[in-house]
Design brief:
The complex is a heterodimer of chains A (about 300) and B (about 500).
Chain A: H1 8-34, H2 42-60, H3 63-87, H4 92-110, H5 136-140, H6 145-163, H7 165-175, H8 177-182, H9 187-213, H10 225-235, H11 240-263, H12 269-287
Helix pairs in contact in A: 1-6, 1-9, 1-10, 1-11, 2-3, 2-4, 2-9, 2-10, 3-4, 3-9, 6-7, 10-11, 11-12
Chain B: E1 6-15, E2 18-28, E3 33-37, H1 44-51, E4 59-64, E5 67-68, H2 74-79, E6 82-85, H3 97-103, H4 111-124, H5 140-152, E7 158-162, H6 170-185, E8 189-194, H7 197-203, E9 206-211, E10 214-219, H8 226-234, E11 251-260, E12 270-278, E13 282-286, H9 293-301, E14 311-313, E15 316-317, H10 323-329, E16 331-334, H11 349-361, E17 364-365, E18 368-369, H12 371-384, H13 401-413, E19 419-423, H14 431-446, E20 450-454, H15 458-464, E21 467-472, E22 475-476, E23 480-481, H16 487-493
Parallel strand pairs in B: 3-8, 3-9, 6-7, 7-8, 13-20, 13-21, 16-19, 19-20
Antiparallel strand pairs in B: 1-2, 1-4, 4-5, 9-10, 11-12, 11-14, 14-15, 17-18, 21-22, 21-23
Helix pairs in contact in B: 3-5, 11-12, 13-14
Classes of the chains: A mainly alpha (about 300), B alpha/beta (about 500).
Chain lengths: ~300, ~500
């Protein structure tokens, strides 16, 4: 084995790429859960976003339009969840699982003509001078734009939840929907918007996999990232920066263990493969030992009966 | 006559199967404290929800200072100067005081300014509050202050208060009344909803009485006796429960040095609780909600296990036994919260009868259920306690609160307990059903059962209990004989005024 083959700069740069789909999906789901809705359909919305984005950018030649289509695709699929849980008042867990199964099947159908096609490349941003700084440049300033969108979105979600009235109302709806209703807030409307935001974010995350990280289309290519995003939201105690930390940790260990496998470290591959999950969960469990708990109305059905 | 602040004319609201309000009309004057009286289900809540814009009336009009007033949503009502303090607090546990208040305002100032305004208003009205404390950590009285200050910050013309005193100690009630009197002197009108008649007689200028959705009379409370008002509410003469002369037997339940942590995050731990209950005695346990009542019930029922010696039944340690083992011995409990704790809402009355009755009534045979016997046990409860339901096959959820409560209490009473622990036996129950439940408890005690009655209704405790103790932050005061106990003494046992001070007018 030769650990010298692992280039730390490349490792850190690629962990950010590996973490971005997870981060995007988790931030979207965080907002949904803060509004008191448990949408287990993240995986389904991601994969539908992946194919919508892939197909659109192949057809139009524009990765930007692809990402736009991915966000719209994820949000449109989340409308199915809205219809089931907010209009028909169906159980959220069952509806979310149905959404994932539907999304996986539907994306396979849409993607039949796209297997083996190569999507147009988005390219990396290159800012003169700072992108060329040794070490820091390749790590921080030589990525695709969507990676920065992910970080900006985390900051924006954090600031909105903490400092704005819109964020306060959203948290209030997730905390006690009956009280929010009694104060005259439109619980269902706020939740629908949150669910669609979550869908759009999951769609972006999916498209990031199919357009940048892998770039190609295969069936089921999100490979469980949506489920990890769901777990990440819980272990991050519904805090945006912790979700970012968790996503980078997970992405980092995933990349590291792949490098270690390639370098032929004398640890069985199975242990290396499970290490990202174990370490991420361990770290976030320790972090979440404080008092913060789930939004009190999470997963409960709201019906304005009185 | 001057134009009233708010005039209701012929308000009607019907829900499927029930007319909640039927042609209700009355006026609220400027600077008047107006009482709205009625039993549960009389339509008080629906009426105030119409004023607050949560419910739209089917017909009828409202005039605010002579102008037509049709709030489409609470926001519109608030903009017109209507504010409301809810009965079940509409607060958000995980948010802090300032955030909670900001949510109830149309155009809240920046958090810093809001915090200083909260301090200012809360001190003016003698209701001190820290704007940055998390609401989940506040006591019931403090939570109510949050609601009141949320309303006061909007300079309301009409303040609606829905049963505000049900969670307060007598001293806290006095302070609240000072605050309300100060508001009245500043020209704010108050619509005060309650079924506590003595309070209304001290505080209110005028009263409207609702029964089955209709306005059945108005009176000036200070000139009307509580009994007359009660009979207007109920529509018939009231039966006061009767107690026969009682003699107490041996000690049935002995609790000593009982300390347990609370199983829930916002709960209260019990600290060194001592009490003894003799056969035939009713021990009333008062206290403001959230001072350890749920934990005490859990410990006595066996839901929370504790040191074996901490609880003794007829000399035998039972602290480690679970609920079923205790039932077998004769220690029975009827918890509060009819839908969820005392009864399974979606199961039938027969099934609910089985859930607690199987041990003592022999409704099981080697794990197989005896449905025929269970059904006749359920029917026995329904007949003996006048539970109004088409039959035992109906789901517990389909019964009205009072009827289900009669069923829950009756289910335990008919199992012939040696010790019966009840929590909030008449919470949310109309006066007639409450009287029946209290009578059943007294009859049981007369037959030699030791009864522990945990309640927040002091009048009820004074009526049925032989001795009284109060829970305050998980500590139980030494029990005292009920006869001769004054309201002041009870208030002090309950922990006094919790840091509130009388408003400086």
């Amino acid at each position: 084995m030769d650990l010298g083959e692992i280039n730390p700069v490349l490792l850190v740069a690629s962990l950010m790429v590996a973490a971005t789909p997870l981060l995007l999906a988790a931030i979207g789901e965080l907002v949904v859960e803060k509004a008191g809705v448990l949408n287990l359909g993240v995986e389904g919305m991601m994969i539908v976003g992946a194919i919508s984005g892939f197909a659109t950018s192949v057809e139009t030649g524009s990765p930007w339009l692809g990402f736009l289509a991915a966000a719209v695709g994820g949000a449109v699929l989340s409308l199915l969840f809205v219809l089931l849980t907010q209009v028909a008042l169906a159980n959220q867990v069952a509806s979310g699982l149905a959404l994932t199964l539907f999304g996986l099947g539907f994306s396979a159908l849409l993607g039949q003509g796209y297997v083996g096609v190569k999507p147009p490349s988005m390219g990396e941003i290159h800012i003169p001078v700072i992108s060329d700084i040794p070490v820091i440049g390749p790590i921080l300033f030589q990525h695709d734009p969507i990676l920065y969108v992910g970080i900006a979105l985390t900051a924006a979600v954090w600031a909105v939840l903490k400092y704005t009235r819109a964020g306060l109302v959203l948290r209030a709806v997730g905390e006690n929907h009956d009280a929010a209703h009694a104060l005259g807030y439109k619980v269902i409307k706020i939740r629908i918007m949150a669910i669609m935001f979550g869908g759009a974010c999951a769609g972006l995350g999916g498209a990031y996999i199919s357009l940048i990280r892998v770039p190609q289309w295969t069936e089921g290519m999100t490979a469980g990232v949506g489920w990890i995003a769901l777990a990440l939201v819980v272990f991050a105690s519904w805090k945006p920066w912790r979700a970012l930390l968790g996503a980078y940790l997970f992405g980092g260990i995933t990349v590291l263990q792949l490098n270690l496998q390639a370098a032929g470290v004398a640890i069985p591959v199975e242990y290396l493969a499970m290490s990202p999950y174990i370490i991420t969960i361990l770290v976030l469990v320790i972090l979440s030992a404080d008092k913060s708990s789930a939004p009190a109305s999470l997963g409960r059905i709201f019906h304005a009966s009185h | 006559m001057t134009t009233p602040l708010l005039s209701l004319q012929g308000l009607t609201k019907a829900y499927p199967g029930v007319v909640a309000n039927d042609q209700v009309s009355f006026d609220i004057g400027e600077g008047e404290v107006h009482a709205l009286l009625g039993e549960n289900g009389a339509g008080k809540s629906t009426l105030v929800k119409m004023i607050y814009g949560l419910v739209k009336p089917d017909s009828g009009t409202m005039l605010l200072r002579g102008q037509s007033f049709t709030p489409s949503e609470p926001r519109a009502a608030r903009a017109d100067g209507i504010a409301m303090v809810f009965q079940h607090f509409s607060l958000f546990d995980a948010l802090n005081v300032a955030e909670n208040i900001a949510l109830g305002m149309e155009n809240p100032p920046a958090m810093g300014d809001l915090a200083s305004r909260i301090r200012e208003v809360s001190e003016t009205y003698g209701l001190p509050l820290d704007p940055f404390r998390t609401v989940g950590d506040l006591s019931a009285g403090e939570r109510q202050r949050v609601e009141i200050i949320r309303c006061l910050l909007q300079d309301p013309k009409l303040l609606i208060m829905d049963e505000p005193t049900s969670v307060l100690t007598p001293q806290e009630v006095e302070i609240l009344f000072e605050t309300l009197n100060k508001l009245r002197s500043e020209g704010t009108s108050i619509l005060y909803i309650s079924h506590k008649l003595e309070e209304i007689r001290t505080l209110c200028d005028h009263a409207t009485i609702l029964r089955l959705g209709k306005n059945v009379g108005e009176c000036v409370p200070s000139e009307t006796s509580a009994r007359d008002m009660a009979e207007m509410m109920v529509g018939s003469t009231l039966q006061t429960p009767e107690r026969s002369g009682r003699e107490f037997g041996d000690v049935a339940l002995d609790v000593s040095g009982l300390s347990v942590p609370s199983p829930s995050e916002f709960g209260t731990a019990l600290r060194n609780v001592h009490m003894t209950v003799r056969k035939g005695e009713v021990l009333g346990i008062g206290g403001v909600a959230g001072n350890g009542q749920d934990e005490l019930l859990g410990v006595l029922s066996g839901e929370i296990p504790t040191a074996a010696d901490a609880i003794k039944f007829a000399g035998q340690p039972i602290g480690k036994l679970g609920p079923t083992a205790r039932r077998k011995l004769g220690v029975l409990t009827a918890p509060e919260e009819r839908l969820g704790h005392a009864a399974a809402p979606d199961m039938s009355l027969t099934e609910n009868a089985l859930l607690t009755g199987s041990v003592r009534e022999g409704l099981e045979n080697n794990g197989f259920l005896k449905w025929a016997e269970t059904q006749s046990f359920a029917e026995k409860i329904i007949n003996a306690f006048d539970v109004r339901t088409p039959g035992p096959e109906n789901a517990a959820r389909s019964l009205s609160g009072g009827n289900l409560q009669k069923f829950v209490i009756g289910r335990e009473v008919l199992q012939d307990p040696d010790v019966l622990v009840v929590n909030q036996p008449t919470w949310g129950v109309d006066a007639a059903a409450a009287a029946a439940i209290r009578q059943a408890i007294l009859d049981l005690a007369a037959k030699g059962t030791a009864v522990v009655c945990i309640s927040q209704d002091l009048d009820e405790l004074m009526e049925i209990s032989d001795s009284f103790a109060a829970l305050n932050e998980g500590r139980l005061s030494a029990p005292r004989e009920t006869t001769g106990l004054t309201v002041e003494e009870i208030g002090l046992m309950m922990g006094g005024a919790h840091g509130m001070e009388v408003a400086h007018v």
